[in-house]
Automatic annotation (TrEMBL), chains A, B:
Protein name (record): Phosphoribosyl-AMP cyclohydrolase
Subcellular location: Cytoplasm
Cofactor(s) this protein cannot do without: Zn(2+); Mg(2+)
UniProt binding sites for Mg(2+): 71, 73, 75
An example molecular function term from Gene Ontology annotations: phosphoribosyl-AMP cyclohydrolase activity
Length: 121, 121
């Protein structure tokens, strides 16, 4: 299926394939999508850092991609994944761990200071 | 909670609150989000038509918003909704009705020609 990258990197919704929880939103360019399909692990394109990245390359919290869905306009995709660890850099399973009213709806799965700062120890 | 609209309208992931199926991706500006919160029905901002719209205003397939979640960066939101009819203008429940390989994973819930074209009859 042809994906429309005419306007640059496209949004990728990431969903846990088992629980169906929405984990995060990121972006992919053509190369990130190709690497995701070729390796079976989620890759993205960071618009702020202007570079390709593999989810979990630092934290180990990789995402094995079970299925990729495409929307009707072919300009948004959905990765259904098996999440190792947790998706959010804050330590929560999902980046969507708060309501708009500020209530936390889920706790931390890991301590981000241990995962990101003490990696070399 | 402060939502970051500095870069313009933000992505809104829309998920069925009961089945947890991801239904669509759209965008909201500050006004669309305000109307969504005030009315309890999903409103969006169309970047191509440059205007606010209410989901279902033509089709009747409105979305009652049960909960709004915010991501860690506060620049993406998630509407958990009760979907009337179906979310996709093609007649499928979700806009994500195909795999990237082109396989349809779900059938139509309604006939778009009847819903959109013969509305005045």
């Amino acid at each position: 299926m042809a994906i429309n990258f005419d306007s640059g990197p496209i949004p990728v919704i990431v969903q846990d394939s088992a629980t169906r929880e929405v984990l995060m939103l990121a972006y992919a360019d053509k190369e990130a999508l190709r690497l995701t399909r070729d390796t079976g692990y989620a890759h993205y394109y960071s618009r702020s850092r202007r570079k390709l990245w593999k989810k979990g390359e630092e934290s180990g919290h990789v995402q094995r991609v079970i299925r990729i869905l495409v929307d009707c306009d072919e300009d948004t995709i959905l990765y259904q994944v098996e999440q190792q660890g947790a998706a959010c850099h804050t330590g929560h399973m999902s980046c969507f761990y708060r309501t708009i009213g500020g209530e936390e709806i889920s706790g931390r799965v890991f301590d981000p200071e241990k995962v990101y700062a003490n990696k070399g120890e």
